[in-house]
Amino acid sequence: MPKEGITPRAQDYSQWYLDIVQQADLADYAEVVKGCIVFKPTGYAIWEAIQRGLDDRIKATGHVNAYFPLLIPKSFLMKEAEHVEGFAPEVAEVTRAGGEDLAEPYVIRPTSETIIGYFYSKWVRSYRDLPLLINQWANVMRWEMRTRPFLRTTEFLWQEGHTVHATEEDAERETLLILHDVYADFVEKEMAIPVIKGLKSEKEKFPGALRSYCIEAMMQDGRALQAGTSHNLGQNFARAFNITYTDQHNTIQYAWTTSWGVSTRLIGALIMTHSDDEGLIIPPRLAPTQVVVVPIYRNDAERSVVMETVQRMTAEWKGRLRFKIDDRDNLTPGFKFNEWELKGVPIRVEIGPKDIEKGSVAIARRDQPGREGKSFVPQDGLTDRLTALLAEIQQALYQRALTFREDHTADVATYDELKQQVERGFARCYWAGTTEDEKRIQEETRATIRCIPLDQPQRAGRCVYTGKETSQQVIFARAY
Amino acid sequence: MPKEGITPRAQDYSQWYLDIVQQADLADYAEVVKGCIVFKPTGYAIWEAIQRGLDDRIKATGHVNAYFPLLIPKSFLMKEAEHVEGFAPEVAEVTRAGGEDLAEPYVIRPTSETIIGYFYSKWVRSYRDLPLLINQWANVMRWEMRTRPFLRTTEFLWQEGHTVHATEEDAERETLLILHDVYADFVEKEMAIPVIKGLKSEKEKFPGALRSYCIEAMMQDGRALQAGTSHNLGQNFARAFNITYTDQHNTIQYAWTTSWGVSTRLIGALIMTHSDDEGLIIPPRLAPTQVVVVPIYRNDAERSVVMETVQRMTAEWKGRLRFKIDDRDNLTPGFKFNEWELKGVPIRVEIGPKDIEKGSVAIARRDQPGREGKSFVPQDGLTDRLTALLAEIQQALYQRALTFREDHTADVATYDELKQQVERGFARCYWAGTTEDEKRIQEETRATIRCIPLDQPQRAGRCVYTGKETSQQVIFARAY
Question: Does residue B46 belong to the interface with chain A, where contact is any CB pair within 8 Å?
Answer without folding.
Answer: no
